[in-house]
Amino acid sequence: MTDLSPSQYDALERAITDGRRIAVYRRGTEYIVVPTRLRLEGSREALLTMHPTTGDRLTLYVDELDSIEVVR
Length: 72
Hints:
The chain is an alpha+beta fold. It has 1 helix and 5 strands, in the order αβββββ. It has one helix at about 5-20; strands at about 20-25, 30-40, 45-50, 55-60, 65-70. The protein has a 5-stranded antiparallel beta sheet, covered by helices on one side.
């Protein structure tokens, strides 16, 4: 599980605003996605994302992630 720091939340929010790609690691798998929204589902933070090539939607829960990096 990951606890995002304030600077990581800022970088994630900028990536959402700018439409930049992020690399997300969950259970040993890397996902390169474009975040579209961060929202609460119950008591969990959900990151709504889109695959940059296919446009497929994927919901990732922040408490299940190993790490998040903004791709520059």
